Amino acid sequence: MSILEVHNLKKVYRLSDGGTKVALDGVSFQLEKGEILGIIGRSGSGKTTLMRILRGVLPFDEGRILMGGVECVPDSDREVKRRLKDMTAIHLQRSFAFWSAPAIENVMRRLYALKTDDETILPPDDSIEYEELHDRAMVLLEMVGLEHKAELPAHTLSGGEKQRLLLARQIAIEPEILLLDEPLTMVSPDAKREMINVIKKVHDTTGVSILLVSHMPKLHESLADRIIWIDEGRIIREGDVRSITSAFMEGIEPVLPITPLKDHIPIFKLSGVTKKYFNYNLSKVFEIRDIDLTIFRGEILGVIGPSGVGKTVLMRVLAGIELPDEGSLNFCTENGAVVDITKLGFASAMIRQKIGILHQEFGLTHHATVEEIVRGRTKFKEMSEDDLKQLSKKLDLKESILDFVLRLADMPPDSRNAILDGFELGEDELIEIYAAIPQVHLDMDYVLEMFGLLGLPSEILQRRAYELSGGERVRVALAVELASKPELLILDEPFGDLDPLTSRSISNLLKEVNKRIGTSICVVSHDRELLAETTHRIILIKDGEIKREFADEELLNL
Length: 558
Fold this sequence. Notes:
alpha/beta, Rossmann fold, 2 domains, six-stranded mixed beta sheet, 38% helix, 23% strand
């Protein structure tokens, strides 16, 4: 018995530059009650667009959707779209919109909103209703294997743990159809296995029908009853899982060889770096301790390790946007000067302009054009020391405070807001400070060169971030960072939600960038095979320490 029927669905995007893009073209399929139906395709093939249409949050141009007795056509009213939302829950890729609160409270707010339609409130914590909510939320956390992390702040969870918390929030509403869009994004191999088991448990426990979008063949082979292959908005094959995933992988490009590292001239030295993370009740979440690490000019360094050991925190420490509890971060300039960026001030602010960081969340402003994003980013990276001094005087800020505020600009919004909560400084005041930074001249020829190097046409500068596909987003995010001419580029899970074919392409592009302009690159990834073909060397972070030499078996068990 079908719970979902899709007939001749078509979606055309009207782009802000005046053009159009056909995202879906004549898509038809059925989802049976209790079935797990897989959807595979390259980044940008229309998979996420399809999920958003089925969720009722994105209009479409042609076709018909039948879901649980509800018919939706292009001119259906809001009530029909609301009924689609009531029947579905969606798990979007790289979308971790959590409250700055413990994991269990994030689930409790979701549950309470079913009654109040408002996640901003909870009943009094000494009430019976609060206790009942807490118990229900704990059951859901146990279902996704997160009961031991219930009291930890959501923003301190690893990528895999955030995926499971997001899943707990979605099943809280008891949907008839669960829409999973890349549920293994930014997840380590061990966490992938755990997440697969969690999805199986949720399916077996609830009987929910699942539409599973993923570019990972092994995920479909583990979970899907059937599979659909979408390419450029059209279904090109449907049926047996293994035969279709095998055909999908035939299009992967060959590995580009990496340019050997000739010299070993340091660009960055970490000495005795220790960083401890605590939750709100002062119990330790994790610790990286006594880290010594040298990164060389022109090197591509790979970083791998289990989920939740502090890889992302170490990258933020490298970028100077989180300070270690102990140790030094010495940036070595080309003229031989050494600056410890743990010391706040103009000198550190100048050095940090030479460092670019691409977070897991990418940080592309949703409604901004790509050119606006480039301009907004480069103005933070091309200030002279005189510019900094004038800004300090204009804003009446000490140089250490100005440097601190500039570091916040490089942080993802959720982490920045968590820090701001501890200061008498709001997001609006921060935006006012950033607006006071003068816009620098943009070397458009260099910008176009970087975009071209990454296979991006000049026209994409006029597109808005929400108009970009997954593959375009990672290329644009890389190009935005490269446009500010970093000497060291830090990439935290750049391959996280890309299909294997696009991941290989991005890996080859990173090696080409390294060869052409000599950028030093530090890449965090859970994909050991991809790191091995992309980098000069790999370090393993495990048990709070760096291991430079390790057996292959240690990587197999991450």
